[in-house]
Amino acid sequence: MIKKYNFRFLYLILILSLMGFGLTCGKHRETKKTEETELAQGEPGTKANQTQPPGQQRVGKRGQQAVGRGLAGRGRGSGARNWGPSDVIELTDDEIGAIEVKTVKAAFMPLKSKLTAMGKVLEHPYRKAIVSYPFPARIAQIHARIGEWVKTGQKLVTLQSEEVGNAKSDFYKAQADFELAKVNYERQKRLFDRGVGAQKDYLYAESDFKIAEANRNATEKKLHVLGFSEEEVKAIAETHQINPVITLYAPIDGKITINNAVLGAMIDQETEILTVMDPTILCIDAEIYEKDISKIKEKQQVEVDVPAYPEDRFNAEISYISDVLNEETRTITVRSEVNNADYKLKPGMFADIQILLNHQTEALVLPKEAILDDGDNKIVFITKAGKYYPQIVEVGTSEDSLVEILRGIQEGDEIVTKGNYQLKSKLYDEILKKGHVH
Q: Beta-carbon neighbour count of residue 240 at 10 Å?
């Protein structure tokens, strides 16, 4: 019986010993794994944190520091990579001969401050005229065609209107009554002045004369309302011809952009017969956000780009700033006048405008060709000791071929401007080969 209890006691001790050994091994493996993780993440005091490749800690504007690692996380999950210390390119001798690499040092330069906005090209409201007629009429003659240039006072279209015929007839009648009343008034005045005429007859004659004069003036003004000029009214009074026609003339110098005139067609007061526009000066309306209102004022210079002419830049000037804020978009309308002497700009075009804010600032800049798209991010390649490192940067304003770099690099960094596309391609090839696709 004693031997049986001793055997059970030894068996229990053996089980407890094995359990203790297992717990000790598990704890040792967990401790080792934690140490390896800390070493890989670069905890303070480790070797991984003592050395950094170029671009990991960068300065954009003077006195403003940015950590490259913080920029690297932006855009992840939308086609952008999280570049790390292991993402480095070394070219072989054959590749160096095949790829022409050019670099430039990042430097601070004066850069004009600009405010960018989207706009639309419009006709100038003071250089456009719609030719119409306020009474029913029929188009009898067309003197100008669409696309033609016309001068002020040039014939455009001749109309036939019953209203014109009636107005001329009323004018002739009123003119005849006026002339008769005038003769009678002058005769009665002479008789009264000589003392042989009755005062009553004189007063009646004077009253008839004033009434006839008022009627004649009213019918003359009716002709002016219908569109007849002072010279034309004088000609009507001399010819005494009741012709129910009227000719419409160009109110401004310009080009006929719309022509709805059809020979023999009837028109009324709602018909826009012709549109004359001067295309040498156009307007561009843009929406500026509320936060930028204090930066703009009238007479500021504006640079205009349109998709139709990507190589051309048009100069404009702010002529009007709206006094009303759009509560839905929190924007105001800013109008610029642009010279269009070569007629390239067309009303209705979309335009990108850059308002020059009339002062320059020192900014860290790079040529546009040094900056590549990488998903949602912008990247450059920094070269150091024959190696090339991809670095995410944040860009600001631009002027001509230069782009402001806000964060990601620092002054003096050697940046690749030519051959960077080949470097990016090689970088992704190596990632694919290693199976490091994120």
A: 11
> What does the pLDDT read at residue 357?
81
Domains in the chain: boundaries: 54-124+279-438, 128-156+246-277, 162-243
DSSP tag of 329: T
Using the predicted structure, report yes or no on whether residue 149 has a pLDDT greater than 90. yes
Q: How many CB atoms lie within 10 A of CB 64?
A: 10
Count of C-beta atoms within a 10 Å radius of residue 32: 10
CB 69 within 8 A of CB 384: no
Mean pLDDT, all residues of the chain: 82
Query: Which position has the token pair 């970088």?
Result: 427
H-run or E-run covering 302: strand 301-305
CATH code of domain 128-156+246-277: 2.40.50.100
Which ranges of 50-134 would DSSP assign to H, the alpha helix?
68-72, 93-98
> Rounded distance, CA 377 to CA 64, Å?
20
- Quote the CA–CA distance of 176 and 406 in Å, as a whole number: 85
Residue 48 has pLDDT above 80, yes or no: no
DSSP class of residue 144 equals -
Which CATH fold topology does 162-243 show? Helix Hairpins (1.10.287)
User: Which parts of 195-247 fold into alpha helices (H)?
Assistant: 199-226, 230-239
User: Looking at domain 54-124+279-438, does it have CATH number 2.40.30.170?
Assistant: yes
Q: Position of tokens 């009716």?
A: 222
Q: How far apart are CA 172 and CA 332, in angstroms?
A: 56
- Taking the C-alpha atoms of residue 50 and residue 44, their distance in angstroms, rounded to an integer, is 8
Q: Which residue has the tokens 């129910």?
A: 244
Residue 304: which of 338, 255, 267, 346 has the closest Cα? 338
